[in-house]
Amino acid sequence: MSRRLIESAADIAEGAAWLVSVEPRFEPVVAECSPLPLRRRPDGFEALFFAIVSQQVSVASATAIWARCQEAGLTSEAAVAAASDEALRAAGLSRPKQRYARALAAADIDYARLRDVPDAEVISTLVAVPGIGPWTAEIYAMFSLGRPDIFAPGDLAMQEAARVLFDLPARPTERVFRQMAEAWSPWRSVAARALWAYYQHIKSREGIV
Fold it and tell me: Is the peptide bond before 35 cis (omega within 30 degrees of 0)?
């Protein structure tokens, strides 16, 4: 199945130009925050396992835990499935995350196949695994698979960026934000990147970062 993917900075630039043409309020964001981040990552088990490791902890903590997992050789489906509770705990995984890691290892996901199926099927396949919610699935589709038309309306940073950029009285709810983003198709993944970049910009401007 042939499909358009975000693979390079040129793809991001094309999407950003289109975005500005349909929503001029993105123009200052693109001007101030370019180049918008590409953030392409490898796909597969490791990417999702790292996402589980990173849930509800700081970036520094996630990095440290992942380093311990790597040192212990706990980055493959087989290794995680065979690991004892003690080994997973020693790497820094809480009891729920141990359960989620084992569920992911046992899910037998065909990661190569996910590269070619429709966006909705990617999301539905991933959220069927305990510990993987819509946000994690959307981030995987966006950055590990390079899908150009994925959005993550539950992301608080994007919601805050949209509140400021569009002068909203409050952060949009997930439902409202998803509806707003429909106007940015087929480049919603670029809109997401623009909003994340703008969030960092406004927080830096406020001296909060």
Answer: yes
Q: Which sequence spans correspond to the domains of the chain?
A: 9-40+149-205, 45-144
User: Has this prediction a pTM greater than 0.70?
Assistant: yes
pLDDT tens digits, one per residue of 66-109 = 999 999 999 999 999 999 999 999 999 999 999 999 999 999 99
- Whether the pLDDT of residue 146 is over 70: the answer is yes
| Residue among 195, 97, 183, 99 nearest 142 (CA) | 195
- DSSP states of the chain as a string? -------SHHHHHHHHHHHHHH-GGGHHHHHHHPSPP------SHHHHHHHHHHTTS-HHHHHHHHHHHHHTT--SHHHHHH--HHHHHHTT--HHHHHHHHHHHHS---HHHHTTS-HHHHHHHHHTSTT--HHHHHHIIIIIS--TT---TT-HHHHHHHHHHTT-SSPPPHHHHHHHHGGGTT-HHHHHHHHHHHHHHHHHHTT--
Q: Which CATH number fits domain 9-40+149-205: 3.10.290.10, 1.20.1270.10, 3.40.50.450, 1.10.1670.40?
A: 1.10.1670.40
Q: Looking at residue 207, what is its pLDDT? A: 63
* Cβ neighbours for 209, distance < 8 A, ≥ 6 positions apart: 200, 203
